[in-house]
């Protein structure tokens, strides 16, 4: 179901990054201060290769009792799953549902230009939430 709304129209372009050598506490502080739920993760060569989400922090760190000075490198979600800014948001919703993701990176000619969250889609088109949930539910069976 095409919506006529393109990913590039609603994606966030302010990308917040963190080095993979940072600690859980440093990541949490950045997320809190910027009021965001994810950070793009860079390696020592400053190449973005993964994402760290609030969900990663809860499920992979806090729930396992890791100390706040634990490095985030082993907690990150990778590889990054991307979509074109010219794609319809319904395509993004399907991809998120199929892959059980809450965020996609937006790529133009292989270059990261933005990030799109499930929340961004739901704000614009609440009916697409059902599409995401339906796909995720199908994976859980």
- The CATH topology label is CBS-domain
Number of structurally distinct domains: 1
- Which strands sit side by side, in order, in the main sheet? 1-2-3
Number of strands: 6
Unreliably modeled segments: none
Mean pLDDT, to the nearest integer, reads 90
Describe the structure in your own words.
The structure is a single chain. Helix 4 (89-99) packs parallel to helix 6 (127-140). This protein starts with 6 loop residues before the first helix and ends with a helix. It is an alpha/beta fold. The protein has one domain (7-140): Roll (CBS-domain). The longest helix is centred in the last third of the chain and has 14 residues, at 127-140. The strands form two sheets. The chain has a three-stranded mixed sheet. It has a three-stranded mixed sheet with strand order 4-5-6. It has six helices and six strands; from the N terminus they run H-E-H-E-E-H-E-H-E-E-H-H.
Annotate the secondary structure layout.
Elements: H1 7-10, E1 17-19, H2 24-34, E2 38-42, E3 48-53, H3 54-62, E4 82-83, H4 89-99, E5 103-108, E6 111-117, H5 118-124, H6 127-140
Parallel strand pairs: 1-2, 4-5
Antiparallel strand pairs: 2-3, 5-6
Helix pairs in contact: 4-6
């Amino acid at each position: 179901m095409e919506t006529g709304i393109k990913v590039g129209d609603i994606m966030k372009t302010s990308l917040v990054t963190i080095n993979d050598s940072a600690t859980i506490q440093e990541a949490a502080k950045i997320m809190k201060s910027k009021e965001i739920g994810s950070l793009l993760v860079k390696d020592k060569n400053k190449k973005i290769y993964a994402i760290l989400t609030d969900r990663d922090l809860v499920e992979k760190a806090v729930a396992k009792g890791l100390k706040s000075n634990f490095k985030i490198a082993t907690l990150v979600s990778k590889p990054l799953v991307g979509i074109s800014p010219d794609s319809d948001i319904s395509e993004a919703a399907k991809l998120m549902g199929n892959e059980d993701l809450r965020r996609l990176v937006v790529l133009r000619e292989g270059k990261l230009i933005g990030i799109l969250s499930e929340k961004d889609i739901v704000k614009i088109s609440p009916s697409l939430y059902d599409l995401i949930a339906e796909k995720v539910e199908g994976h859980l069976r």
